[in-house]
Amino acid sequence: MVARKFIDFWIHLTGEEDLSEILLEVKKLGFKSVVASSTSDSIYEEFKKLGETYEVIIYRKLVLEPEDRMSLLKNLRKFRGGYEVISVICNNLEVALTAARDSRVDSLILPPGKMFRIDKGVASLISNSIELPFKWFIDEAARRDFIRVANEVINYLSSKTSIIVSSYASKPYELCSPHELASILQVLGIERKTALDSVSTIPWSIIERNKLKLSPNYIAKGVLKIG
Predict the structure, then answer these.
(1) pLDDT by residue, tens only, the chain of 227 residues
(2) Which candidate, 20, 75, 127, 137, has a CA 20 to 30 Å from the CA of 100?
(3) Taking the model in full, what pTM does it have?
């Protein structure tokens, strides 16, 4: 059986953390790679360089939290070519439906305080991956609403699109092992193999697809420049 390559799809760097401690913990927990957002370019570059020392591959993530459709589309046009991953926090239905249909968006993040419900109508329009940040589960203030959102995702979306579980950690103690991250899906009724896919094959497929798109040889979907 081929060993899984685990990836944490969201670590958020604020500048207050010890980057070496985070990478040491990432390595100990068994991750081959992480996707990191950061508050500055310099923090990300330092983290990426340190990743080479710890043999952890670092990819860059942009997390957008737009107020409306137009601001989302503007930022996607502006930033898509500079990041391996773009995720969108969807606080309202307009943003969620726009992000759900845009191929430049890699994952939709539905926060505990979102201002809409997922039902069959909304679910029919969502095809991009849904990302569940585990940090909201371990946060007592957010936990109840996070579980409600996760239940909506499982009930309406698990048979229609893929689910990713990320840590959203900013401190070493907020990091969780791949099996701990996947456990939230198992608790909600997802079988173990599919739950583990949420921290391995599903996020890796997004990374591989976007690495290809960012390649100078990429022309269009299914078209690569040879030579």
Answers:
(1) 568 999 999 999 999 889 999 999 999 999 999 999 999 999 999 999 999 999 999 999 999 999 999 999 999 999 998 999 999 999 999 999 999 999 999 999 999 989 999 988 889 999 899 999 999 999 999 999 999 999 999 999 999 999 999 999 999 999 999 999 999 999 999 999 999 999 999 999 999 999 887 755 544 455 445 55
(2) 137
(3) 0.92
